[in-house]
Queue: 4 jobs
Job 1
Amino acid sequence: MEGEAPPLVPPHNSSYFFTTSLPSTSLHLPSLLHPPQLESQIAPDFDWVALLSGPIGYGDPNSVPASASVITSENRGEEEKGGKEKRKASRTKKAIRPKFAFQTRTTNDILDDGYRWRKYGQKAVKNSTYPRSYYRCTQHMCNVKKQVQRLSKDTSIVTTTYEGIHNHPCEKLMESLSPLLKQMQFLSRF
DNA sequence: CGGTTTTGACCAGCGC
DNA sequence: GCGCTGGTCAAAACCG
């Protein structure tokens, strides 16, 4: 079976899933806080701030507008072990972690979401021309992961799946907000 | 030199 | 039980 389109929805029980189309190749947080003109399936009242200020995929699935193409399936939990035990545990215990998947129309596989990621694997997947890449948050003690895969059906679309909760602030977000916070602190003195 | 990417090997889950 | 598949590890290569 050649060219069989991968399912629009990721195979796992994603917490959230929606499709969007970005004009640029990157997804800088400031622009996300004020989303550009997306020819998207995202509701205009989509809670971007909650999505991005909180850990990715975090929060109440009910807060996601029904008009967004969303799958909600709560799966949250923990996994903390060392070495192979951890590896084993992460596979045996059905990973109960928040997941969040979305698609972007971009030529760039790497989505700049403000966090720093280290690639730890790449794998050819069945029924897909393009490999799936596996990334992990570089922040120590933060075991958030993400998968990136380009659709073979529509090569301009990249599916990004986040898994887990960041336990630290977003560097770029803090970077961009710090002048504003300083200004607010200054003004609050009056 | 330290951090990141690449890539083959390994392992567990799942379907048959 | 076996083979397939997806996810991860880890050593080597690469890069700034």
Note: Residues 84, 87-88, 91-92, 118-122, 138 of chain A lie near DNA strand B (CB under 10 Å from a C1').
Job 2
Amino acid sequence: MTAAANQSGRRPTTSRRLERAGIRDVAAAAGVSITTVSDALNGKGRLPDETRSRVREVAERLGYRPSAAARTLRTGRSGLIGLTVTTYGEEPFTFTEFAYFAEMARAATSAALGRGYALVVLPASSRHDVWGNIALDGTVVIDPPDQDPLVSELYRSGVPVVSDGKPGNCPVTAWVDNDHEAAVLGILDHLTESGARRIGLLTGTSTDTYTRLSTDAYLGWCDRVGQEPVYETYPAHDPAAGAVAADRLLARPDRPDAVYGLFDPNGTDLLAAARRYGLRVPDDLLLVCCSESDVYAGTEPPITTLSLKPRRIGTTVVNLLIDAIEGVDSGTGVDVGRLFPPRFRSAGTGPPPGTLMPTELIVRASSQRRSTRTTVSPPRSPGEV
Amino acid sequence: MTAAANQSGRRPTTSRRLERAGIRDVAAAAGVSITTVSDALNGKGRLPDETRSRVREVAERLGYRPSAAARTLRTGRSGLIGLTVTTYGEEPFTFTEFAYFAEMARAATSAALGRGYALVVLPASSRHDVWGNIALDGTVVIDPPDQDPLVSELYRSGVPVVSDGKPGNCPVTAWVDNDHEAAVLGILDHLTESGARRIGLLTGTSTDTYTRLSTDAYLGWCDRVGQEPVYETYPAHDPAAGAVAADRLLARPDRPDAVYGLFDPNGTDLLAAARRYGLRVPDDLLLVCCSESDVYAGTEPPITTLSLKPRRIGTTVVNLLIDAIEGVDSGTGVDVGRLFPPRFRSAGTGPPPGTLMPTELIVRASSQRRSTRTTVSPPRSPGEV
DNA sequence: CGTTCATGGAGAAACGTATCTTCTCCGCTT
DNA sequence: AAGCGGAGAAGATACGTTTCTCCATGAACG
């Protein structure tokens, strides 16, 4: 039996079952070779339009669907992108960051689909069990902790990794983050303009980038302006602790006359605490919190919020990742050499390219003594990366 | 060159690049055959523990990761499950059902991961572009419309499909749904017990299962009890229309003294409308709405909600799907015959197996004149499917 | 008239795994 | 002594593509 015969007419022993048509079946039915079918369907090769359309028609008639697995094996591309939150364990999403994460994930999914990729939501834990069984073209990592072993291993094995949140020590292909410093400074300026004399901060105990950069920006501002820092911290993943911390902040002897809360529930918590202490908002206390929720448009009074624009972040992250996947990738040592002669490339030691995205301050009644309503984007500090 | 030599020592022309170690490399390094490596790592075959552990150690040292694509191609299993919402177009998730969908998707993701599968979120539209490029072992479909071509095609091509929401006409492997009729009847009973004389309904215009079954249950109840139906409909995906409809309902000459709203925002909308008309809740108007949000625990007054328990649904759907994938699958004509002799199987015409899950009524102040707080599960009507 | 070139297409080699089949020992039974 | 059976492991094939290489045929061209 020649190889050709083996190639075209097959399945000698097993009785032909009810199986999906393969490319061979299409080729046989159309009276052409496998190559021609592949080229015709993928728009490659040089074929007259007549052949192309005929093959397409036969394929359609046979209900032919190319095997994704075979294609992935051959091309090395699966069209799949991993999405993971590494900061907090277990559950794939975290309640605390839910609104942000949900929006971000939604935008990321849309952006990926728009470019022909699909997203797979994966937990940061359970490494090989799941991660190893999926062919991923790349991974989006949200807020990776320093030295994340998962990210390191992915990167080392050549999978492009783009992180949402400036990474600490783990190497990534690229990263995207908000300009948290500019955001905080913008808020502090805004509150100052609204007449705040002593601005307090409600922040978290964890060491993720967001918390750290925001708190540092606040402390630096205090230092420059000459205000004594007034802040309370609590574990951000614990909603109950947030309410307690809000209360603590307003119970201090050096009670602030304006507060910025870093986390989504801080707005309502601070509002409730203020009520308990008989403080009117905004008259006695100016309030701003970071949130993606629009319930703050309906509170009494409406609360000024900082939006991190998760949609924009998600879209940007995915586009960067897909660029890295499809472009001349700057992975560890993957060969580019066949097309381009070896040339100088920054070899791993240089910092990965980062992108800072502006935030948006949605000014509502809680942060202004006069009753104008405007939307202000904090100025980007031009010297930043 | 013998085939054996070809098998073990390869890559003659291309200079050995920085590539991931394959199973061949492990075999060579361990001095055994590919078969032995495969068996050792997968816990199959008959190998002495010594060989097994040695192979494992070599694999570890080489950083060997089996190729997911190759494994998928060989075994026909990818470990990937699709998740899609088909009801409303474009965006992968719909705002209206967001809380429900998010919870359900989260639970589904967890359940899948617990069994070694990962979830891929896919849009119902853009058929071949994306769906065709991913090897899916099965698909979860949320609320498929009647005659959904996507579902039909998936099912026809042998991919198990389990739907959240009883499907209309499309064939599915199995489905899961809440016992919407029991839920509505439970609410109507509860409201009646709280003193309601004329119960109104705020419902949707779309024809999905949830809306239809709930509305029918209401109308049937009215018919039995002898109450004239009092209801307003609006397109559920339009939040603004919801507020208007709530207002319409309370503006009617035959104004109800109790209302059940089928959709998440109805609670606040009805509360606002009641306020406009000077109606006190629960004194003048009893209120219940279907929602997964816990904001209704904090409204003034707190509003009784019906929870569809999306976590439970998501978990159940995924487990049913994976059972179908791994068990003796009842797909169209896929062979089971190699292991079991042909035998009588219900061949497609029988209705797919469905599971009804109970809902949970979280009773709060808005639906009771007396101020006790309890949680009541509506009784399941035993005669139902 | 011989050489190049473009066109249309076929052959066959991977991609990396799982698994069915076979082979070789070697100790044991009858 | 012959046969048997099981342990341990290797051979080889198939999974279904993509793609690199190569072949045939004419037409254009000098």
Note: Chain A touches chain B through 48 residues (CB under 8 Å).
Job 3
Amino acid sequence: MTGTERPSLVEQCRDNGWRITGQRRVILDVIEKTDDHPDVEELHRRIRGIDPGVNIATVYRTLNKLADENLIERHMFDDGRLRYEPAPDAHHDHFIDVETGEVIEFVSEDIERMQDEIARKHGFEIVSHKLEIYVKRRP
Amino acid sequence: MTGTERPSLVEQCRDNGWRITGQRRVILDVIEKTDDHPDVEELHRRIRGIDPGVNIATVYRTLNKLADENLIERHMFDDGRLRYEPAPDAHHDHFIDVETGEVIEFVSEDIERMQDEIARKHGFEIVSHKLEIYVKRRP
DNA sequence: TTTGCAAGTGCGAATCATTTGCAACAAAGA
DNA sequence: TCTTTGTTGCAAATGATTCGCACTTGCAAA
């Protein structure tokens, strides 16, 4: 048997007191199916594939609200646009393939631990962090 | 005695075939004196303090050219504007104090080493990387 | 089931940092 | 000094994101 399922985004939003509109249903649905790191334009493209009437301003507003409540994660890599992914179960960092633009997730307990240590040494407490490694495939 | 001095930015630019105009002399001078991570507006403010006639478009153009030739380093932290610092002698990463906006540099050989290792494990070669730790001061 | 109304939406205009086109200007080599 | 190009200032363009506002719609309470 599988572990406890996380409630759907729609349910989580309803719990947070959001009105579930037709547009939001579509937007949340698309996000839930996301297994990459699309930017707003790409998300809007996917959303329009289901309901062509959803305005991009609505997409922006919804994404901001979701990110504010930590229901999705927002990134900005070196191309300068915002990219989104569903809230991950566990923190991870990213490789970005500079040749293809592909984003690959990775986890390193060791690196996390060293960050804590060095922050502590400097008298800081970590609020969040971002590690992006720009790479190319080794021949 | 001190080690070999790095040639001034003006000299480096001249070596790269740039024309050394009055504006550039001022811009390069201000950058050379920089020991923080100012954004373009702040740099322009400092430059205007010396020569009020330097247009911000010129500042942008010069910064881009410098960054293209790796004579300065460009960052974009979570506030969404470009910030610059003189090309560092050695790679370092950044703490960003979320309460004050202050940027603090740090170096960790250990973290660098682990990044190499994990990249290798994934079949990648590192092109560059960026580690930003958003922190607040520990009480 | 209807209704009231605050929350949500579409649309176009506004914003903000950054870039660009172009005519005037000025380094630097001949 | 003259000539050739690279640079500059200015204003207009860009491109991603946000905002104002009139219209619409979920949904709680009647």
Note: Chain A touches chain B through 33 residues (CB under 8 Å).
Job 4
Amino acid sequence: MIMTVTRFAPSPTGYLHIGGLRTALFSWLYAKHTGGTFRLRIEDTDMARNSEEALEAIIQAFEWVGMSYEGEVVYQSKRLDIYKKYIDYLLAEGKAYRCYMSKEELDTLREEQTARKERPRYDGRYRNFTGTPPQGVEPVIRIKAPESGMIEFTDGVKGEISIAGSEVDDFIIARSDGIPTYNFVVAVDDALMGLTDVIRGDDHLYNTPKQIVVYKALGFKIPNFYHVAMINNEQGKKLSKRDGATDVMEYKALGYLPEALLNFLVRLGWSHKDQEIFSIEEMIALFDPNDLNKSASNYNLDKLLWLNAHYIKNMPNAKLAIVLKEYGVHIEEHDKRELLLDATKERGKTLVELADQIHLILNAPQNYDEKDTKKAFKEDTKEILEDFVHLLQNWEKPLHLPVDYHAVMQRLVEDKQIGFGKIGMPLRVSLLGSMTGAGMDEIMAILGVDETIARIQKATVCIK
RNA sequence: GGCCCCAUCGUCUAGCGGUUAGGAUCCAUGGUUUUCAUCCAUGUUACCGGAGUUCGAGUCUCCGUGGGGUCACCA
């Protein structure tokens, strides 16, 4: 297998959103799949829009999901002299030229073209200019794009793409302040970094012919391109901030496990037969960008939630306890840790919900919801609970495990000739202050006899 | 608007000329359970429309429709 070099190249203008994370994941997986290299490059040539916080947020998101990049992060803002060298070369070769058109002139031209219902484009007026340049205008540098013919390339996702050369105008590769522009630096860096495969969103499809112009002008080898279809919202429209969590780190705050998020994202646009659950190792082993879907997919929370619940359920307790620390639950050293987690991990779709479940057990209820108590407490309830306390206090054997407590409940229902329902719900409300939650036997085993009795007694006092 | 891309259950998807169109999620029902959840079983729901090619089309071609992307001295 050929070792690939892939990259993720965000611009630090905002947080990392899930669409970006998915393309990064695809790139990362493909590199790992081939035993190749995955790199991170920051596209920060637009000095005005860069932000330090955005950069940190992106790095942080990568850390959280556990995607590692090799080598140093490449910052384009630190490579300006390299780009200048290539621009000078193109100028010298006559493959690029200075254009003295001012912004205002350009705007006017575009307005005229739009009025004539033409596609706004640069008219090439300085392409072969040999006269005296106008005074007071700092020129931009434009690259000579083919005036006719087709620019063709094979996209690993979309197939054969051909775009008329006339659709690509002599685009600007360096602004009047000398800073090179996106399509130029992307091509230069992708080539210089030895990229074999470029996986990116299909909103970049139209940049590809432009970048190919640069590759050809500079004599670089053209990499394989994969343009991944977008992720839309539930309505099939472009994902925006209004669609809730789009910031990757927001998912952490909401209680999602990174493995669930990654599993969710990898299945958006990619599949392997009927398989739904993929460990990272399986993803790496099976992923191939050539299997990527052509069509856009809609973002839907249900599947993510289901996956998250799955990963929570199947996570070893020791690891779960560590993860839970971020959600205010500190039970790593708790002597009933295993019992606590076994009793609750199937009841939370998110870590936030799981933390709530655990809090319910660990902290005695401060008050009792009136609706719950009305439902759970009948006339004979107080007496039943008191009998139960009495049984607990006089139980001849030590009470440790859930089965021990189960035996006590068993004895109670037998002695009093009642159903489990008579004791179960009142007991639950007494211990948790809630109608739902973990199994009674487990809860009591976690609390211990003393705390169990204390909570029941408190409840019987509070409730008339 | 020009150019480009896309189109299977509500959603994520399998399918790669011959299938009772499969799986997952969601939803509903039943079972298990002292509650809830888990788990198990069952069920409802899809090939955008129209031509063509072919013995045969969800699969190939064309047209239409719908959706998306893109047209910066942003990335």
Note: The radius of gyration of chain A is 32 Å.
